[in-house]
């Protein structure tokens, strides 16, 4: 059976969001001010409405990330060439709309960080780095969208951030991971239900710095952050309120790439049984590599590369189809877009034939409407937002920027 046929058959059974797993615990750190005392509503404080479809968006500069609201409807957060944060979102009629969410009050947006969603997939959070050097969030309460200044870690220098990832703990507590310049430490900004806090996770030992994002997973309800070090190894640290202990997960005999060029990196997933971690990276040999954990321990697997083409980035994003079949998305040097997937017996590459040349970055989301609606969102070189989505019978390309 050809790879593309297998993709269609498997995706028709998709039923799991594995990009924002929700269970819970919280670390300890110095308390920050309560959320409601530091929030400011977006102009009008409105929920998104169907009438927003009349808005014409500018070209997209960066994708911040994507979530499935209500465990069903994709919301794509992006930064436009006008410097504003925009949402391209699907409503309950399955119509697509654009909404301009502006910028933090009196502050521009320097770069994206990531997204997550809390409270039973009902309340999205988008994180960006402001021109004031602070982390900012745009989040939705029960009735309004609001900007909040998350501040910056005490004494840290944030000139530019490679982002890590965001995750929801306990179903209601956002955690976002970033790296500081200079000391190159990993920091977590997290909400425990009452206050926001910053905690310093440090960096791997022996002078190794974590300079590449990969992802964060919940293991036994506790966040586990994964990074690529400047030694070419994969590293992990558990976020449980104690001093972070970094574990060297090694490499497969070739150095690992510095990480995904996608912000809000989601190149780590969990699959059944037992929520096993699967981590996808790019090697210096330009092959895609998988580091996964079974009952026998950690193992490496060489996924290779698409036939006749060269991978240019680590995955744009990863999904877990039906909770058990990993799918990862890649760009190639010939302007291609490929899926690598597991059908239960073997790994396959499938050419997605984009009708444009993909630019850097992307975001993947599983939105299990009728258990059959995964989607990938990427940019072309003109700043148009495109989606590759499954309608229950076949794959489709749609230019979301076209009005």
UniProtKB/TrEMBL annotation:
<keyword id="KW-0732">Signal</keyword>
<feature type="signal peptide">
    <location>
        <begin position="1"/>
        <end position="20"/>
    </location>
</feature>
<protein>
    <recommendedName>
        <fullName>Carbohydrate-binding protein</fullName>
    </recommendedName>
</protein>
